[in-house]
Amino acid sequence: MPEIGPHLLGIDGLTRGQVDFVLETAEQFVEVSERNVKKVPTLRGKTVINLFLEPSTRTRSSFEIAGKRLSADVINVSGSSSSTTKGETLVDTAMNLHSMRPDIVVIRHPAAGAPHLIAKHLKNAAVVNAGDGLHEHPSQALLDALSIKQRLGRLEGLTMTIVGDSLRARVARSNILLHRLYGNKIRLVAPPTLAVREFEELGVEVFHEMGPALKGADVVMSLRMKHEYLKDFFVPNLDEYSRRFIVSEPVLKQYCPDCIVLAPGPIIRGTEITSEVADGPRSLIMKQVTNGVAVRMAVLFLLCVGRGAHWEDVDVAAAKEQAAA
Amino acid sequence: MTKGNGKKLICGGRVIDAQRNYDDLMDVLIEDDRIIGVDKPGAFTGVDGAEKVQAKGCLVVPGLIDVHVHLRDPGQEWKETIETGTAAAAAGGFTAVCCMPNTHPANDSASVTRYILQRAQAVGSCRVLPIGAITMNREGKALAPMLELREEGCIAFSDDGVGVANAQIMRRALEYSLMLDTVLAVHEEDPSLCEGGSMNESAMSVKMGLRGIPEAAENVMIARDIELARLTRARVHFCHVSTARGALLIKRAKEDGIPVTAEIMPHHFAADESEVKGFNTQAKMMPPLRKREDSEALLEALRAGVIDCIASDHAPHESDSKAVEFEKASFGTMGLQTTLPISLEQVREGKISLKRAIEALTVAPAKCFGITPNTLAAGQLADLVIIDPERKMKFTEKMIKSKSKNSMFLGRELQGLAVKTFVGGRQVFDIAAIEC
Amino acid sequence: MFPCAAAGRSIVSTYVFVHNGDKTLTTGKKEQEPANAGQAAASDKSTWNKVLDADQIRRSVIRIAHEILEKNRGAQKLAVVGIRTRGEFLAKRIVDQINEIEKVSIPMGVVDITLYRDDIAHSAEQPLVRGTDLPFNVDRHIIILVDDVLYTGRTIRAALDAIIDFGRPLSVQLAVLCDRGHRELPIRADYVGKSLPTSRDEEVEVCLSESDAEDSVYLHERKPRKKQK
C-alpha cells in the first residue's frame, strides 16, 4: 500500500494512489461509527493533541471523536487557552508539545504554512493540517471526496462547480488539488473579486455566471460567504451576492438536474444556498459530517502506524539542537 | 580617513574604472589616504618602501557604493549595528553605504544623523552616508526638517519601508528638496493595495493561500511619482524596482526628460517568486520577489541603463523574526556580502557586461545620489577594492559579518569575491578573515 | 504503489498466505507483494513438505462441522465467524456443511483484526483495513470463531476483542484448520483439523482454492526475512 505520512500537511504532494488508499481505509471506518460500542482499541496509549489556534467547532470535534473512537487520548488546546496569545512563538509551542511526546498534532491555524513550520520542529509526531489560513484543509477535501465516491460510485470523469468565495477558502484549494489528481473538470463561479483569473493557472475554469458554470455539473459545492469579508470590499453586500450566486433548486434543475450538492459548512441558508437544496435529496451535507469522522479516523490511524518504534531510538537533545538550528 | 598608512603598491591587477574608462592591466600606488598614481605594470617598481599588494588575476576597481542599506542602529542593535553592518559592507567590497532612516528613532532629526556619523567615524569599517526621513517618524503625515538633516550630513531622503501614501505631502517634499540639492529615494508601494500581503500576487499566492501584493501596488506609485517629478522638476530615485512594468514606466519617464533614477536588488534580478515555495521565510521580501519575466526584464533594464544602479537593500533580521509563520515573518534579506558575487554571476552568464556591472556598483549609484564617485586617479581618495572573479566560496553563516544571519543566498556557491577592501588607504577587509 | 485500490484487492486474492507468525504480522505491503511472489513460491513448493492435501482438508472441515453440532447439540443459536482472509473461506465451508447436515441456514460473519492488533504502532508497513461484518445479533449466539492456523494466539485474542465490541455472545468456540503450537497466550482451540508439531523456524503455508487455486497445507523452512526498518 502507498505510504502515508509522515505528516498530512495538504493535498499538495499526495498522489492519487495515496488519496485512494486513505479513502478506502476511511470506508472501513464508517462501520465502526455505526456500532453500539463505537470504539476500537487501535490507538490505545497514543496521544493526539488538537491544537486549534482559530475558532472551530466542527473540525475540532470531528478530530476529537475520531481520536476517541480509536481509543487515543485526545487533548484539546485552543487559541484562548494556549500560550500563543501570551506572545509565545509557534516554534516554542511546537517545542513544548514535543516535550510532551504526542504521537499526532492536529493543527488549525490562521496563518498559511503554520503546520509546515510545526512539522519542521516536531521530529517524532505526525502533524495533521486541520486548516491553515487560506491555504489548505486536506481532511475536508478527503471527506468531500469520500461523500462523492459513496454517492456517485466514482471519483473520475466528474465536473465539479464550486460556487462562492473560493479565494478565501482553503477548502476550495484542497478540493481543486484533489480533483486535479483525478483529472476532473473544476469550475469556479463567483464575482470576479473572488473568482480571480489566477485560478485558471491552477487548471480551473472561472465563471461569473451560474448558467454556464453549472451546465452539466455532477457535483456542486457551495462555499461559505463570511460576513467579515465584506470589509475587504469583495462584494457590496450579501443580498446582492445572493441575487446571482445563491444555489437554488430552480437553477440546479435548469442546468444540472442530476447534480449532488456539498457544502463544507457552516452554511448560511438563504444567502449561499436555499433550504430546499440544503435539506433536499441532492444534499450530502449531513453525510459529509458523518464521513468527516471516518476520514479523520483513517488519517490518524494511517499516520500512527509504525510511530511506536520511533520514540525508542530518539535522541531528544539532538532533536532539540536540530530544531533550534 | 586615516593618515600614516604608508605606501602601498597594488600590482598586477586589471583596473576597471567606468568614470575614467579604464580597463587595463595597471598598478596602483597609494600613499596614506590618497592614490598617488595609476600606471602601466612595473611603472612604480622604483618606489621605495611601498608595501606590495599582489592583485594578479584580480580586478582592481573603485570602492563599491551601496545606496540602500539598513544598519538598524540606533534602536535595533540586536539585528545590526553600525560596526557590524559596515564590517559586512567592507567584506562585500563596499567602501561607502547609504543607511536608510527607518531606525528607532527614525533619522528625522539632527541628533540621529549626528549619532550615525559619529558612530561610523568611531567604529565603522567604511564610509556611512545617512539618508534622512521625508516625513516625521516616516508616518507620511508631516515633513521632516529636511534642511537641518541635509546640513547635518544626510545626502538624500526616504521613508523607505513604506510608501508616502499622501500625494500632496510627496509633492511638497519634492518641491522643498529643490533647494537642498538632494534626491528623494522613494519606496513605491501603495499601502492600501498591499495591505496584509506577504508575497507576489499570482497563481502561486492563490495556491499557497497567501495574500498577494499586486505589481500594480508598485506601478501606480511609480507612475504617480513620475508625474510629481515632472510637475516639480525635483529628482526622484526609485528604490528596489521589482516589476517589468515599473522599469517600462521609468524608461518612458527618462525619454521624456523627467529627472528620475532607479536601483535594483540582486534578489529581484537573480531570483523569482518560486523561492517562496514551502513557505520559505528567507525569500519574503518587500517588494516581493516577482515572476521570472520580471527578473529578466529588470536585468535587461539594468543592462540598458534604464535602471541605473545595483543596491543591496541589506535588511538584517534576527533569526527569531524569520522562524515564524510566513505571514508573520519579517521582510527582507541581507545583501552586503552577496551583492557583488550575485551581480558577477550575471556577468558570467552573459546577461550584462563586466564594465556595466562595475559601473552599476560604483559610478552609477554615486551619480544617482549626487555623491562624488570614487575613481582611480592620482589625488583621489584611496577607496578601492580588489576582486577575485574566480574565487569561489559556499556562502555559510560562518562567513557572515553581520549580526544577523538572514540571507536567502545561504548555501549558494558564490563566485567573484572581494579579497581586499581599502577605505582611505586603510585596508578594512581581507578575505583571509572569513575563510574557513 | 497501486494506482487504485481495486487493483490492490485483486492481488490480495492471488497471494499465498504465509504463516510466519500470526496475522499480527500481516501488513498491507506484504499482502500486496506482486503476484510473481506467489509464483516464486509455487515453484518452490516441490521442496516443501505437504502436510494436508485437498481431501484431508475436506474431511477435516466435515469432521469439524460434525463436532460443532455434536458439542452444541445441533445448530440452534450457532453463528460462524471467520477471521479474514482464509478464516473467512474456512468459515464459509463449515457453514455450508452445517447447513447441509442440519438443513438449516445459520448466520455467518467476518472479522478483520487490523484495528485490534497489539503491534500496530510498531509495524513498519502500511496495514490494510478491511471491514468487520457481523450481520446478526452477537448477544444471542454461540459464536464459532474460525481461522486457518493457530500459532501464538494473538490473532485470536484480537478477534475475541473485536467480537466482544459487538455484544456479549453466549459463548465463543474456536475452530482452526491447523494448530502449530508455540502459544504466547492462554488460548486453545475447541476444534482442530490437524495438530502440526513445528519449530519456530518453520512456516506453515495454507492454500485454499478460493484464493490460491488449490487446497493444501505446506510446511517449510522459514526464508530469511528482510529486516524491518
Q: How would you explain this protein's 3D organization?
A:
The complex is a heterotrimer of chains A (325), B (436) and C (229). Chain A has 2 domains: 16-135 and 290-324, Rossmann fold, CATH 3.40.50.1370; 138-288, Aspartate/ornithine carbamoyltransferase (Rossmann fold), CATH 3.40.50.1370. Chain A is 41% helix and 14% strand. Chain A is built from 13 helices and 9 strands. In chain A, 53% of the residues are buried. The model of chain A is unreliable at 308-317 (pLDDT under 50). Chain B has helices spanning 82-91, 110-123, 146-152, 167-177, 203-208, 215-232, 244-255, 266-270, 292-304, 339-348, 354-361, 363-369, and strands at 7-17, 22-31, 34-39, 50-54, 59-62, 64-69, 94-99, 127-132, 156-157, 184-186, 199-200, 212-213, 236-238, 260-264, 309-310, 384-394, 413-423, 426-430. With 229 residues, chain C is α/β, with parallel strands linked by helices. Chain C has helices at 5-12, 28-31, 35-44, 54-71, 86-102, 154-164, 209-212, and strands at residues 17-19, 49-52, 78-83, 108-111, 142-150, 171-179, 191-195, 202-207, 216-221. In chain C, the strands form 2 sheets. Chain C has a 5-stranded parallel sheet with strand order 4-3-5-6-7. Chain C has a 4-stranded antiparallel sheet with strand order 1-8-9-2. In chain C, helix 4 packs across helix 5 (86-102). Classes of the chains: A alpha/beta (325), B alpha/beta (436), C alpha/beta (229). Chains in contact: A-B, A-C. At the A-B interface, helix 4 of A face helix 5 of B.
* Total beta strands of chain A: 9
Instruction: Give a short account of the largest sheet of chain B.
Output: 8 strands, mixed
Please identify, by name, the CATH architecture of the largest domain in chain B.
Answer: Alpha-Beta Barrel
Annotated CATH topology of the largest domain in chain B: TIM Barrel
What structural category arises from helix and sheet content of chain A? Answer: alpha/beta
How large a portion of the residues of chain A is in β-strands, by DSSP E?
5-15%
Please work out how many helical segments of chain A DSSP would assign. 13
N-to-C SSE series of chain A? HEHEHEHEHEHEEHEHHEHHHH
**Please, how many helices of chain B?**
12
**Rg over CA atoms of chain A:** 20 Å
Q: Estimate the mean pLDDT confidence of chain A.
A: 88
Low-confidence stretches of chain B: none
Q: Note the gap between the termini of chain A.
A: 35 Å
With strands numbered from the N-terminus, the spatial order across the biggest sheet of chain A is 7-6-5-8-9
CATH class of the largest domain in chain A: Alpha Beta
Specify the CATH architecture of the largest domain in chain A. Answer: 3-Layer(aba) Sandwich
CATH class of the largest domain in chain B: Alpha Beta
